Amino acid sequence: MDGVVASWWAWPAALFVVSFAIGVVAVVAGVGGGVLFVPIVASFFPFHLDFVRGAGLLFALAGTLAAGPTLLENRMASLRLAVPLALSGSIASFAGALVGLALPTDLVQLALGATVVAIALLIWRTKDLTAGSGETDALGTILRLRGRYQDPADGLAIDWRTRRTVAGFAAFAGIGFFGGVFGLGAGFANVPALNLLMAAPLKVAVGTSGLIISIVNSSAAWVYIHRGALLPALAVPAILGVMLGSRLGARLLTRTPASVVRRMVIAVMLLAGGRALLRGLGAWS
Amino acid sequence: MSREELIQRTYARWLEAASGLAFGAALLAFVVYASGLLPAFVPLEELPALWHLSADEYRARSGAPARWGWLELLAFSDYLSLACIALIGLVTLLCYLAILPLLLRLGERLQAALATAQLLVLLLAASGLLAGAH
Description:
heterodimer, A: two-stranded antiparallel sheet, B: about 0% strand
């Protein structure tokens, strides 16, 4: 006990280092970071899962808030696209959190792992739907879900517009619901929903996913604060680490070719999904 | 500058400023907490014996409050730090408040209605009513 007490700062310091590394990867991959942070920290750090989840939620929130200005300024994130989808996700995530608290943890882990791995495989097997492919729909036209961004990686100005807007709303409600059930935020599924379903270019999907996470997690963060599941000694090193890491990640995003981002998304999702799947099966406690 | 750029940049500007202030406050309060400048409700040295407990067990063992009870403990550095972390949860709300008048002025009624609905969701979450339901 005395030895542990003397080194209380060692674990928060290690948490800062891990959070920085995850912060860089999370922004480039557009997964929010919580989906990586929670399994990694829960596995290798001595903190209870309640505090890990609380810190993880703030971690994902801080990372996306820090990256937001850069992503918005360079048009990688579309606020017009984020506003309706984040609203749908926010409301559904509350319902999901209520349901998730009533389900057995193993079942939640298993479902999370299977879902993430399935989506990662779907992205791997499917070609990128590039700018404006497919016809826009009536709701997309009314909401004017379109835009233009200059891709610094290849110098091209790309006009884009979304399609299947109603299905997009339903998808983000579903993602928000399951995000609430899993307690990890909803970033792991945002990118494929924006890219594969709604035909947003991959980089816009990645950037907008981060913006949506920052909005959805702002609501969920208060649940953890009010429940006493946030320890500043864990949350602040995690926030500081991811904030610095995600700023670096946001700059890398503009210079990284889309194919690299795609591979990173797949790798990150397989890693996080495989981890959750193994935990759900009891093979990795 | 197009209306799209104006809205995006306004949101980005507020996001940059508000998140910078919130992160700065959280960091400053944490320095106060970690340095021992103010007394902590739960001293840092005792945390390793508590952070493996669930949130409910932690509260029961340490006497820490739930919901808005922590507002009465802001004289303690750990709860001052928590309050500054809570500011991070208000950044998005502030950004939405900043773009709402702009959306209305630009005639973006649908986006304004959606932003208003999001503001209500954020306010409901911050109120603690949903946490109480849990």
